[in-house]
Specification:
By secondary structure, this protein is an alpha+beta fold. The chain has helices at 28-36, 38-45, 63-84, 93-101, 104-119, 130-139, 141-152, 223-237, 267-288, 299-302, 317-326; strands spanning 170-171, 175-176, 182-189, 198-205, 210-215, 250-255, 258-262, 333-345, 348-356, 364-369, 381-390, 403-406, 411-415.
């Protein structure tokens, strides 16, 4: 057996001892995740005490996700400050004064960025790339600033002045109380007895109107419309925040470059969607009781999966072949499970393919490690994510001329083998 004692636990392929089988409250993101691939969701939300004390598996560094969190936090701070500062229109002197008190847009984005980096500082999966990650986010700060300004302009400025004071939706002494007329951010929607939770980015309520707005910083996605309609269902059924059972008359998805109006649901459609959600949640919860949870490998599910290194189903040659046929990668990066046969030099090995997208099992090739990982050694089996492949300059049948390069973006995970 090839021992892995010297390798940090985060880089070992070791499934959780116990699968998460219960979920206290469902969210739309969790439901979509479980329906998409129960194995992936379960691997992400299991506990890994050998790796760290935090809940869930350590996240893979994701620039898009981090920049989205920074912008959302800054946006929430600004909306609350505008409401409490009696800002009635944007732009205006009152709005400018509020922004100055927050230190300006640039300072606000930088503060939120530093807070987000501090939140992930103990993630062992990013310890080796934290400096480059920070540098990339710093380089993108100007774009984050512009996206924040564009999203602020998406807020209906004529509605900001309708609430003289900011009052939290939840408080320790009052509990959940009916939502006041005005504009509110990060509204927690959780109908009593429904075991659901949803956070509406922005809600506006007055005698005649009820609007739910969601802010998105990435690309457009048809699934966001369903998410907003689910928020509408939760709002209609939340008898604590919405005792009158009012229905939204406007649903909007705001992107930095524009808006998408989502169709509002009728009373009958609200009832039907609530019933359908109950059925979907029951099915999702039942899938969590299966051990191991069912895997649904596909190119769509697996391409950006942050825990595929732990999923044995993904690494089956048959699965890799099926994924290759679904979507052949358009770039020169791939995932592969390799056995390192012999060391060829300080930074290179001869290796045999066990599985890999676009690679035939048994193929002999060369592995070049630009990062000089001290844990790579002949006799070890590794799973590499996002490794670069160099094909022969001339098309020949000699597969051993293929070369896999492990660079700074490649993650290396080690299997214990006999």
């Amino acid at each position: 057996m090839v021992e892995l004692d010297v390798i940090p636990p985060v880089w070992k392929v070791k499934p959780p001892e116990n699968w998460p089988t219960q979920l206290q409250r469902m969210s739309y993101t969790q439901l979509i995740g479980i329906e998409g691939c129960t194995r992936k969701w379960s691997l992400q939300h299991a506990q890994y005490p050998d790796i760290w004390d935090s809940q869930n598996y350590p996240d893979k560094p994701n620039i898009g996700l981090l920049r989205g969190r920074v912008i959302h936090e800054a946006l929430e701070i600004l909306v609350k400050a505008f409401v409490s500062g009696n800002v009635s229109t944007i732009p205006s002197e009152a709005a400018t004064s509020v922004i100055r008190r927050l230190g300006g847009f640039r300072h606000l984005v930088q503060t939120c960025l530093e807070r987000e980096l501090a939140n992930i500082a103990d993630n062992p999966r990013i310890s080796g790339v934290i400096l480059s990650l920070k540098a990339r986010l710093e380089q993108d700060r100007g774009n984050m600033l512009e996206d924040l300004k564009r999203l602020i302009r998406r807020i209906p400025s004529d509605r900001l002045g309708t609430s003289a004071t900011w009052e939290p939706v939840e408080s320790e002494d009052k509990g959940r109380v009916p939502l006041r007329y005005g504009i509110h951010s990060e509204v927690a929607l959780s109908p009593p007895g429904m075991d659901w939770i949803g956070y509406a980015d922005l809600m506006y309520l007055d005698e005649n109107s009820c609007e739910i707005r969601d802010f998105k910083t990435g690309g457009r996605n048809d699934g966001y419309s369903e998410q907003l309609q689910v928020y509408a269902v939760l709002w209609c059924l939340d008898s604590e925040l919405n005792p009158e059972g009012r229905h939204p008359d406007r649903l909007v998805i705001s992107y930095p470059d524009g808006e998408v109006e989502v169709e509002c649901l009728s009373a009958a459609e609200i009832t039907d969607m609530a019933s359908n959600l109950d059925i979907r949640v029951t099915s999702a919860r039942e899938s969590l009781t299966i051990s191991p949870p069912p895997a649904k490998p596909s190119w769509e599910q697996c391409q950006w999966c942050p825990v595929k290194q732990l999923c044995d189903e993904y690494w089956l040659p048959a699965t890799q072949s099926a994924i290759t046929s679904q979507k052949t990668p358009t770039n020169d990066y791939l995932d592969a499970q390799l056995h390192l046969d012999n060391r060829l030099g300080p930074k290179s090995f001869s290796a045999t393919v066990i599985a890999g997208i676009g690679l035939n099992p048994g193929t002999n090739l060369t592995v070049s490690d630009q990062g000089q990982d001290q844990h790579l050694a002949a006799g070890r089996t590794i799973r590499v994510l996002n490794a670069k492949i160099e094909k022969p300059e001339q098309e020949e049948s000699d597969d051993n001329r293929y070369r896999i390069i492990l660079d700074g973006s490649t993650e290396r995970f080690f299997l214990e083998t006999t």
